[in-house]
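Protein modeling request. Please complete all fields; requests missing the sequence field cannot be processed.
Requester role: graduate student
Desired output: 3D structure, token encoding
Chains: 1
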Amino acid sequence: MQERMQERSYHHGNLRTALLEEAERSVIAHGVAALSLRELARGLGVSHAAPRRHFPDRAALLDALAQRGFDTLGERLAGAMAAAGPSFEARLRAIAQTYVAYTAGRMPVVELMYASKHAAETETAAAPAAARAAYAVPYAVIEEAHRDGELADGQDPQAAARLVFAAVHGLAVLLNSGMIAPADVPATVDTAVDGLLSGLGSRTGRPA
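Delivered output (208 residues):
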């Protein structure tokens, strides 16, 4: 009786959200391999069959979790870009700071996101499209800087974007592995962005 009452308390899609939140906590704490629909159901106090109303299998849950991660990252990047203003330097710093902040303490989920991003795209797999949407805004910032002449002549915007993400993802890995102390993160990110601006040949802030 208690289980049925708890199960009925998840209505209007709340169970799906609860499953994704619990799945994220599980992946962060125990890794992807340990994730189990049955264990999630037990933890939420619903029947073991209840999750399958939203996720037919474990793979569908993992894809949805990756999609959720990219959706959240995309929203944060877009908000940071809007707040940064038109300056390429300010936008680049916002990209780096937002990405590193998003990954802090959740690298197992980020690794799942990247694995899902590169998985074969199917009619039901949503993560690859969510990944493209998440990265569209920062890619557009770099392409705009290229068009406006803020990057060195001959600089390929796609190559520049790969360099930026390689740098910020590398910082995220170092932070999450304990190689960068949390207190040192802001200064380290700023130093990395200074190096990126120099390497990209950015004309931002240079005297005329």
